[in-house]
Amino acid sequence: MTRAYNFNAGPTALPEEVLKRAEKEWLNYNGTGMNVMEMSHRSKPYEEINHQAQNLLRKLLNISNDYEILFLQGGASLQFAMMPMNLLEEGKKGYYVLSGSWSEKALKEAQKIGDAESVASGKDNNYTTIPDIKDLSSLENGSYLHITSNNTIYGTQWHETPKNLSIPLVADMSSDILCRPIDVNSYGLIYAGAQKNLGPSGVTVVIIKKDLLARSKDSLPSMLDYRTHANNQSLYNTPPTLAVYLLKLVLEWADSLGGAEALEKINQQKAELLYHEIDQSNGFYNGHANKNSRSLMNVTFTLNSKELTDAFLAEAKELGFTGLNGHRSVGGCRASIYNAVPLEHVEKLAQFMKEFRTR
Ligand code: PMP
């Protein structure tokens, strides 16, 4: 059987090299006679895996020693609550830019913890554009500003993050971490579920500026306190060992390709193939996102009728393309083209889009 042309929104394709390497090491990881799942998380081999994964992420995103890297569980959804539990200060506000459903969810969770509000929203235009924050100076008394760097459902992405903020910038990078280089120093905290660009589900990466750890209160349950995990190398309790191991393999793969710069170039090439087909289709395909907010990771588009959409998706499925249905709130189609989706698969999709349109 051949591999699917996998355009799932997440979990999604992993690099074939990574899967083969895992298969090779499946019964006997590095001479231990065990699968990584079978070994103690307190053993030397596992501690090394944990350490190497952290170091690789530090290298690939150029993360300075001012930041802790944590591997947690509970998905990005737990971070919607855990982040304000730790960072939202008494008498101050958590500010949110609403750029899609995930940021709405993040705000709702924060409002259960304390005082949080939206400072810009793209909801009125159905999240086709990343909204502008009108007055940055009005944020001065906040605890943080939260953004969702890539909007998985709507296919929009921040291309320039707010500059000269006087409060920490917090970003949910679940669907675009490591798709391009970023300046980690301009963030107070970054979180991301691994299951799109970094590996399988089950592990969530948190990158937090060390000085922000001082905001956590002793009254927090240990597992919800960032300091617990920072002080224990993310080994306070049993970590998702297999997920962290696969994360390490994905990071090695990313490193071997040339890191974030190289990945960005390939991602631009892949996205351009699909956006080009949309733009020159004379309205046969309609891109959901405005051009200046288009995502490198999720290409969203509609066709002009339900019949045409159904026919497109049915034929695509026949040909081995999977995951092209749009999210129910946008409809139409969505091609998620995360780091591990090969260029050739995107070329195949662009070719199919063209053939279908011509016919
Ligand atoms: N944020 C974004 C941007 C996402 O795309 C997703 C998942 N699709 C989430 C948060 C929720 O992540 P999880 O399922 O890991 O909780």
From TrEMBL:
Entries under SUPFAM superfamilies matching the protein: PLP-dependent transferases
Entry cofactors: pyridoxal 5'-phosphate
Residues passing through the membrane, by range: none
Enzyme class, broadest EC rank: transferase
Primary location class: cytoplasm
Domain Aminotransferase class V: 5-349
Annotated binding of L-glutamate, by residue: R42
Subcellular location as annotated: Cytoplasm
Modified residues (N6-(pyridoxal phosphate)lysine): K196
Sites where the protein binds pyridoxal 5'-phosphate: A76, S77, W102, T152, D172, Q195, N237, T238
GO MF annotations, alphabetized: O-phospho-L-serine:2-oxoglutarate aminotransferase activity
Pfam families membership: Aminotran_5
Entries under InterPro entries matching the protein: Aminotrans_V_dom (IPR000192), Aminotrans_V_PyrdxlP_BS (IPR020578), Pser_aminoTfrase (IPR022278), PyrdxlP-dep_Trfase (IPR015424), PyrdxlP-dep_Trfase_major (IPR015421), PyrdxlP-dep_Trfase_small (IPR015422)
Catalytic activity: 4-(phosphooxy)-L-threonine + 2-oxoglutarate = (R)-3-hydroxy-2-oxo-4-phosphooxybutanoate + L-glutamate; O-phospho-L-serine + 2-oxoglutarate = 3-phosphooxypyruvate + L-glutamate
Keyword list, A-Z: Amino-acid biosynthesis, Aminotransferase, Cytoplasm, Pyridoxal phosphate, Serine biosynthesis, Transferase
Pathway listed: Amino-acid biosynthesis; L-serine biosynthesis; L-serine from 3-phospho-D-glycerate: step 2/3
Gene3D superfamilies hit by this protein: Aspartate Aminotransferase, domain 1, Type I PLP-dependent aspartate aminotransferase-like (Major domain)
Record note on cofactor: Binds 1 pyridoxal phosphate per subunit.
Superkingdom, natural source: Bacteria
Protein EC: 2.6.1.52
Job description of the protein: Catalyzes the reversible conversion of 3-phosphohydroxypyruvate to phosphoserine and of 3-hydroxy-2-oxo-4-phosphonooxybutanoate to phosphohydroxythreonine.
Subunit comment: Homodimer.
Family, as annotated: Belongs to the class-V pyridoxal-phosphate-dependent aminotransferase family. SerC subfamily.
Protein name: Phosphoserine aminotransferase
